Amino acid sequence: MAPQLGIFHINMGSLADPAVMVEVAQAAEAAGYESVWTGEHIVLPDPQAPPSPAAPEIDFVDSTNALSYLAAVTDRIKLGTGIIILPQRQPAVLAKSLASVDHLSNGRLLFGLGVGYLEPEMTACSTPMGDRGRRSDEYLRAMRTLWSGDAVSFAGDFVSFAGVTANPKPPQGSIHTVVGGHSDRALRRAVELGHGWYGFMRDPETAADDVARLQRIGAEVDRPAELGPLEISITPQRKLGPGDYERYAEMGVDRLILQPGFHRNRDDLLAYVDRFAPSNMPT
Predict the structure, then answer these.
(1) pLDDT (tens digit per residue) in 234-279
(2) How far apart are the C-alpha atoms of 237 and 194, rounded to whole Å?
(3) Are 235 and 206 in contact (CB under 8 A)?
(4) Residues 94-136: tens digit of each pLDDT
(5) Would you call 72 exposed, middle or buried from its count of C-beta atoms within 10 A (0-12, 13-18, 19+)?
């Protein structure tokens, strides 16, 4: 099956401009793209230092705010967080925010999550680096409990509540969840807890290795039946070249989330959306 197409960093850099954000999202929807995706860093080291991926002056509009804004001006295109750094968030508050986006968009939210890797950002968010993986797993389970019904309870090492209700519930029930990261633990988390896995900046060679590792881990892990087949999303490391789309398709990639570059101006962004539109991809 041919991969669906998405557009990355709809909330960053030049796309943080509200008018440009809306115009690009609407153009992507009109061109048949399946989804648009935010990026996230709540704070960045200043001055920039490795492994920080962006200069501190880059604008990052909050993911749920950006997607709520776009929900009001689009009709069909799915709205993805690519990714929310889960351990930095208070889970009950994030569960409410995500359920609200799903409610306002009539069930179009894709919840991409990761565990993070920038120590200065973690420190600013009062999040210990050492247990961020376990914290993320528990947070996701707690959030799904809040989405699942009324007068619910949860008891964990990092979060506990009893007899509480959060409405509105997400129209999807349990929001479609995509787990990012390239380590074996991240891939295992995707198989155990996610509807899908998201590989960022993966060329066809590295993506093929990721898919093989996912298959190996999938054979070792009891995947909950309600999650369905594991969906694979990739943001390519490079602009799609001759044969790349077909290579990703052959390895079983379900979605390619393309990045036009957050420094591009409005006209260049719109030209990119048009150039790589689904109608221009091999069938």
Answers:
(1) 999 988 999 999 999 999 999 999 999 988 999 999 999 999 999 9
(2) 23
(3) no
(4) 999 999 999 999 999 999 999 999 999 999 999 999 999 999 9
(5) exposed
Which of 105, 55, 44 is CA-nearest to residue 80? 105
Q: How many C-beta atoms lie closer than 10 Å to residue 260's C-beta?
A: 22
Give 112's contacts (C-beta < 8 A, 6+ positions apart).
37, 80, 81, 82, 83, 84, 177, 178, 179, 180, 198, 233
Q: What is the CA radius of gyration of the chain?
A: 18
What does the pLDDT look like over 22-44, one tens digit per residue?
A: 999 999 999 999 999 999 999 99
Query: In sequence order, what are the residues at sequence separation of 6 or more whose Cβ sits closer than 8 angstroms to the Cβ of residue 51?
Result: 117, 118
H-helix or E-strand spanning residue 134:
helix 132-148
In eight-state DSSP terms, residue 175 is P
Q: Is the pLDDT of residue 1 over 90?
A: no
Q: Is the pLDDT of residue 283 over 80?
A: no
**Distance of CA 197 to CAs 40, 138, 186, 200, 247, Å?**
17, 18, 9, 10, 18
Tell me what the pLDDT averaged over the chain comes to: 97
Please list the residues that pair with 179 across neighbouring strands: 113, 197
Where residue 176 falls among pLDDT bands split at 50, 70, 90? very high
Fold of 4-280: TIM Barrel (3.20.20)
Which neighbouring-strand residues pair with 112? 178
Token pair belonging to 201: 């900046």
Residue in this structure with the two tokens 């991809």, named with its chain if needed: 281
- Which regions of the chain does DSSP assign to beta strands (E)? 4-7, 35-38, 78-85, 109-114, 152-155, 160-164, 176-180, 196-200, 231-235, 255-258
